[in-house]
Each structure stands twice: as C-alpha cells, then as structure tokens.
Prior knowledge:
Shape: globular
CATH class of the largest domain: Alpha Beta
Strand content: 15-25%
Helix content: 40-55%
Number of domains: 3
Strand order of the largest sheet: 3-2-4-5-6
Radius of gyration: 24 Å
CATH topology of the largest domain: inorganic pyrophosphatase (n-terminal core)
Structural class: alpha/beta
Number of helices: 20
Largest sheet: 5 strands, parallel
Mean pLDDT: 94
Low-confidence stretches: none
Number of strands: 19
Amino acid sequence: MIKNWIIKDADKDIINELSQTLNVSEIVAHLLTLRGIQNFEQAKKFFRPKLSDLHDPFLMKNMHSAVKRIEHAIVNKEKILVYGDYDVDGTTAVSLMFNFLKKQTTEIDYYVPCRYEEGYGISLKGIDYAYNNNFSLIIALDCGIRANKQIEYANTKQIDFIICDHHTPSNKIPSAYSILNPKQKDCQYPYKHLSGCGVGFKLIQAFCIYKNLSLDEAYAFLDLVTVSIGADIVPIDGENRVLAFYGMQKINSNPSIGVKTLTKFLKSKDIKMSDVIFGIAPRINAAGRIDHAKKAVDLLVEKDFTRANLILNEIEKNNDTRKEIEKKITEDAVSKVDNLKKSIVVYSNKWHKGVVGIVASRIVEKFYKPTIVLVEQDGMLVGSARSVNKFDVYEAINKCSHLLEKFGGHKYAAGLSIKKEKINLFINTFEDAVNQMIKPEHLHPNLYIDMQIKTTDINHKLYRIIQQFAPFGPTNMNPVFVSKKVIDSGHAKQVGEDKAHLKLNILDDHKSISAIAFGLGTKYDITINKNEIDICYSISENEWNGNKQLQLLIKDIK
C-alpha cells in the first residue's frame, strides 16, 4: 500500500529561540515546536505536568446538580447502580466509579450490558433490572448521550440518570437528571477530549471538592483513567496528558490489584502507553467480546490478588479464543469485499459479534476504505464502522440515520444496528454518502513525519530526551523521522513467518545502526545491492543480555 509521507512544518524562529532558551538541540526544539510549545513555561508544563493543572470540574455543565444528586442518594440510603459500556473505556469507568462510591455507601452495585443480548449503550433490560431491584439512581458512564427513549422509559419508573459521556451529542439531549459531557454545545468546559472514564473521574474529583475530601481519593484511580485514555485513542494533550502522565507513574509504581495482575503478561519492566494499548486493553476487552464484560469489572474492582489472578486466567482464555475467531472471520470478510466500491459493508449470520470492530480495522488496513462489518442477531444486523485518514465515518453513517435503529460513535469509529431487510438500501445509501464526502487525500494513509535528520544525529542522549515526551498518543505521537539516501550494509534479510519482516543495518556517513521493518518484507528487493533508500522510522532501544542498543523501527521504505 502506497503511503503519503508528510513532513510537518515548524517555525524556524521559534525553534531557534527554544533551542537557546532551553539549551537543547535543534532537533529537540523542532519536536517541541511541532507540539505547540513556544516558550519556557509551556515546555515546563509539557515535561513536568502537575495535577494542579487539571481544570476545575465544576466548569463542566451540570456538575453541581450531579454531585448534589449523588450526595442526596448517599444521605437517604438510595440504591445507586453504576452502569457502563462493555468496552475498555466503559469497564474502567464503572470500576473507577464503583470503587470510589463504595467508600461512601453500601447501597451500590454495578451493571454492564451484555453485548449480545442488549447491545451498545443503555438498555431497557438494564433499566428493568434497576427498577426490579429498587435502584433509584443510575450513573451511566461512556454511554447515554443518545439514549432518549431509554431515559424517557427510566423516568416513567422514577429512576434518575446521571449521564457521564464523551460521545458526540445529537440535536436532542436525553431528559436525564444530569448530563456531563464536555462536547455539549453549551458546555464551557475548557477541554473537550476526555475519555468516558475521564468524565467519570471529573465527577469524582468534583465530589471530593464538594465534600472536602482529599483529592488523593480521586487520584487513586488514575491508572484506570490512563488505561481508558490509551484504549479509546483520545488525544494525549492538555488535561489528558496530565492524567496519563501521572497514571503511567501509578501503573509502574502502585497500580490497583486488577491492573497489576494485567501487567504480568508484559515483557517490559518499564511499562509504556504502547504496553497499555496492545497488552492490557485487549485483555480487558476480551471479556466482553467472548463472554461478559462484567468479568472485566470484577477483575478491576477486586481487592484480593488470588481471586484477581483466577479471574484473569479466565479472561486470558477469552483473549486466546478472541484471536482465533478474529483470524477466521477476517479471512471470510475479506473474501466478501467488493473492491470496485469506495466503501465496504460486509455481513454474515455466522460471525461473532464480539470481534467485528477488530475485523473492520483489519479490513481497513488491507483495503484502506471506510468499512462497516455487521453480524446478524435476532433479525437485526449490528456491528462496527472504522474509517480512513481524515474521513468522518460518523457523518457518513449519519446521512443514513433514517435507515438505522441505533448508531453512535466518533469520526473514526462508530457502532450501528439496522433491520436486515434494509441492508441493501443501506449499503447503497452509505456508498452514495462516501462518494459524496471522500476526497483523494482520504484514499492513502498518511505517514506524518516530524522532521528529516541523518541517522548520525541519533544517540542515547537524544533517545532519553524523546522518552521524556511520553506518554505518547494522538497529538503527541512517538516522533517519526526520515533519513534520505541511506544504504543497507549488505546484511538485509527477510525474517519472521512468511518472511513478512525485514532486518537491516543502516549505513549513513559510514556510521551504522540496526533496524527492523515489521510487515515490510516485500521491500527487500529495493534494499539490496547497496541501493540508496529513504527510510521513515522512530527510534527505539533494544535490550539483549543486559546490553542496550539503539534501533530504528522502520515504518516505510522508498
């Protein structure tokens, strides 16, 4: 697949000023400038964020009413039900809220909907459960902003809802007791990109302030907030950077028992955000994909190591099953793709609902088109959408909303359900929407490059400074560099299963550095015979037998 290499522009005057002010190299100053840092104070906040930099939670619309409603429930011994979605963001949010409120009241429980019986978001079954068990307050996390019908139903049962959500609201807002969502049009909260768990954290923070409790009571859950930030692919800037910075410290030093058990599968002792995204998050998700997400919450609220490990062993089996199912369904889905269209919609009554989101991502990787993968369930087709570079798949689906039963999500990922008899009309309508909206720049993945350097500029000092840019994620990705007209020393070889990867030794001005190019085994021919090549890469550190060596992680070769 052809990738567009886009080298970012940076203001040279700011680079020079930063380099002098901070006494750093032009490379470091360049990287900082690209991240919006223009002076010493901004650099200080970036490298040394403080918890005091977090915004006042009462700036969020409806926060006062939400806090007072929870206090009223606690004082009057009302039963509170903590309700959350079945993905990582939802289950971490439920765990955070339940663990916190359990210290305030015994009249509390949690509920996670079954992916297969109830689907995404707030369900009527969940409301009935609350009613039949005398819960009068439901705190919904990572869902609810579009649950108009469900909230109306709850109101008839005299059940109040506090909705903590971060998804894009529709024009009509549910008639809940309180809605906390920084993306509401009339919400003045300064930071708009919190995760669902992040919104839950702000509610806890507000409750601590209101009740004059130590904020350490809220900060104790920053490991869970950070897992949600990584898993939900929200920007790691502003307030999220502060939360993730301290959350990663907690994960590495004093995580909750549930999170600590999840880290035992990680190879590295120094856990990074990439470990959270690719090691911890998939295991939490596996519970809801294969079995029931309640198992993930059970793990994350557990206070006993022995019981936590027993739950984790079950989840690990779920994860192994998930991998097998995912591989088979991906192969089947690929075979159904009509490559003549600009969009992809595939469905089957034989697929497993729990992995359709992952399968959609795999198809995007292969064909690079807006993709929807659906599975039949009780006469309905339900599933997930994934997008491509800068294309708003949520808006494209919104243009088909008249055909759908439910939908929700973000620019790059969404969920939806549709009656089976409408699927052909939906496929055509979605294709029309994509045709209207898609532009040439959407059709190829972009590789954003921070700057061009020589590999001779790379040393351990530069690597150590770059690591201080962490935690990495959207808006603050691990820096990517390009070096041009380099050669392989003659040791290039294809490695791995089916020779899918490429191992190189890059020479630049007679200085060599090892490199690995995952998934680029097909580029072998252009690297041999000391052909000049351009490489796009990030810098990593490879440890072997106690020895640390710098290594290039090559993303593309031209």
